Each structure stands twice: as structure tokens, then as C-alpha cells.
Amino acid sequence: MESSFTYPENLTKAERYVRFCEDFRLFMDGETDLIAALSNTSAALREAFGFFWVGFYLVKDEQWLTLGPFQGSTACSRIRRGRGVCGTAWDQHRSIVVPDVDAFPGHIACSSLSRSEIVIPIAVPTPDAPVLGVLDIDSDRLSAFDDTDLQGLETVVSILSKLFL
Ligand code: SME
Known about the structure:
Layout: H1 13-28, H2 34-49, E1 53-59, E2 64-71, E3 78-80, H3 84-92, E4 96-98, E5 116-122, E6 133-139, H4 147-161
Helix pairs in contact: 1-2, 1-4
Methionine sulfoxide (SME) binds at residues 53, 75-76, 79, 84-87, 107-108, 110, 114, 117, 136, 138.
């Protein structure tokens, strides 16, 4: 199936997320394979937003995240629960926006070019559901992520979460 997540340059970020989420929902309709879905999600987000690094870390046991599908340069393959931005988002079950990675205690630098970061935990939509992984996005610019990214990416993750059922 041919698809494109390329949008006009003149869209605002909010408009771009609206278009992206509409197209992404249709694109993911009927997809049941987790690896295929996460791989295409990484590629689609990078195509639409030009992110420096975008990918997933998946909970593999009680203490470790393991690198999943991603787009960008090679990255740390394992992150301990509670460590770095990803391990903290998992442990605290909350999204984290980091305007300056150097100011985040314990930030794990997979690339020295990363300057800001956003991490969204993934959980199936049931009460007290455990975190199953995280969506991690890095920018090579300071303060690249804001509430618009947070809302847009939480929508993307909610579309994906049914794949973990
Ligand atoms: N910076 C992350 C590690 C993963 S890389 O950014 C791809 C962290 O502190 O958890």
C-alpha cells in the first residue's frame, strides 16, 4: 500500500499533527503486527516532522527497556527502569518533555547531538494498566517539544496501544 506522510511546509505544527493523526489512524487500521506497526510509525513520524531520532523502547522484563523499531542513528540497546528520560517515564508512568537534555539528571546520551527530548509511555487503555514501552523522540535543537507535540504524540500512542492487547 502506498502512503505518504509529507505535508505542505506552511502548515502550523498543530495542523500538521491533525493531518498526521487522521492519516495515521487510517494507515494503522487493520494492522495487527506490533513490529510492522512500530517500524512504520517511526518512519511516518520522521517523514512528517523531520525528527532527529524517533523510536520505541519496549518493556522486556521488570527492570529493563530494550530498543525496538526506530529511525535515526544507532542507540543504546538497553535502559534500566528509572534511568534516563525513558526509564523515568516508564517508572513514573507519565509523559516527559525535556527542553534541555543537559539539565535532566541522569539523561542517557545516545547521541551527543541530541539537545531536547520527549518520551510518551505506552499502556493499553485499561485502569492501572502497566507500561509496555515508550515512544522516544530526540531533537538536535533545544526546546523543540511543547504541549502540541505532547497532545499529538499521546494521540499517536493511543492509536498504537491496541496492538499491545
Ligand atoms: N536519551 C534517552 C536514551 C535513548 S536515546 O535518546 C535514543 C534517555 O535518557 O532515556
